[in-house]
Amino acid sequence: MKTSSDRILTTHVGSLPRSEAVLDLLRRREAGEPYDRGGFDSTIRDAVAENVRRQVGVGIDIVSDGEASKYGYATYIKDRLEGFGGEAPAKPSLDMHAYPELRRRMTVASFSAAEALRRTCCIGPVRLKDRIALATDIENFKAALAGADVADGFLNAASPGVISAFQANRHYPTHGAYLAALADAMREEYEAIAGAGFILQVDCPDLAMARHTTFQDLTEPEFLARAEEHIEVLNHALAGIPAGSVRMHVCWGNYEGPHDHDIALEKLLPILCKAKPQAISFEAANPRHEHEWVVWRAAGLPDDKILIPGVIDSTTNYIEHPELVAQRIGRFADIVGRERVIAGADCGFGTIAGFSKVDPDIAFRKLATMAAGARIATERLFGPGAA
């Protein structure tokens, strides 16, 4: 994993806005409608190339494929694993219970994406059934990176925990048994990404967001015990991959809601630090979590951990000022040192295809302003007179 050894590097969480052509094909496939497979493959291949080109163009150092081939970051596994079917409706999050009109308006605003998204459940033994989809993702990304001036590349994969949070268990006798089966089924995907020479990003919103969504019926101690169980299973699934080849993303939900039921970072951080991935990507820019930089300061982090704080918000069309971005970077550099900070985003700009409220062009403008802020921070942290 590249670090900020001589300048502040920039990255993001993975998903990027999709074109209408990509969205149309993804919706058709998600809905089980006929679609041109050859046309799908070529459209996705071109989209990945364009995603890399645009990331490089706005100054992103550690780039992704934009998750172009996936309709949802946690639900794509139903197409790659056996054992899923039926339907598992989502629970309204705790923070939305008191605001039924807001919930209604958000549902209407995201209707096309929500209508097509299939939240299946586990109805049988979980096993890998499709190796071609991942192989194609890797091939497309390698082709897009050929000749590109980047520091590193990463590909996303759903963690066992987040899969369990989105796809309810209707087959295994216990949650632990379900997790273990998911870990065994996903291990090959994790190892293939790392083996291809890319950084593996495991997406783990189950460690925070699921407290007020899927696992809202648990008490707080019960949820924290479950989060610890999820970390143990994740570490097991990553046993064959060096820690320096993995980063994990943790968030409280990529939506513009009240978030006043988000579990506090200080309760989660001791558990998060037990995870094997060397780098932790997390929310640090939005109004509900920006203040938690002081929690990281007080945490006494392990010396080997790298922080990827969100320095731009992923749920609004405000374009952050580069100076604000630089200030946010500086806070974390003061905590762990400049070499152990990589500038990132709070979450993705296309976690579910067609769902984001952020205008696609503004999403890339926000990434550009992050790169500009990183350059300012670099001058302060690495320039003449810097420690």
Care to describe what's here?
The chain is an alpha/beta fold. The chain has a single domain, classed as Alpha-Beta Barrel (TIM Barrel). Helices cover 42% and strands 13% of the residues. The protein is built from twelve helices and ten strands. α10 links the parallel β8 and β9. α2 packs parallel to α12, α7 packs across α8 and α8 runs parallel beside α9. The radius of gyration is 20 Å and the shape is globular. It starts with 8 loop residues before the first strand and ends in a 5-residue tail after the last helix. The model has no long low-confidence stretch (mean pLDDT 95).
CATH class: Alpha Beta
Annotated CATH topology: TIM Barrel
What string gives the helices and strands in order? EHHEEHHEHEHHEHEHEHEHEH
Helix content: 40-55%
Largest sheet: 8 strands, parallel
Précis, in short:
This protein is of the alpha/beta class. It contains twelve helices and ten strands.
Topology:
Elements: E1 9-10, H1 20-30, H2 37-58, E2 62-63, E3 81-85, H3 100-109, H4 111-116, E4 121-128, H5 132-145, E5 152-158, H6 160-166, H7 175-195, E6 199-203, H8 220-237, E7 246-250, H9 265-272, E8 279-282, H10 293-298, E9 306-312, H11 322-336, E10 342-345, H12 360-382
Parallel strand pairs: 1-10, 2-5, 5-6, 6-7, 7-8, 8-9, 9-10
Antiparallel strand pairs: 3-4
Helix pairs in contact: 1-2, 2-5, 2-12, 6-7, 7-8, 8-9, 11-12
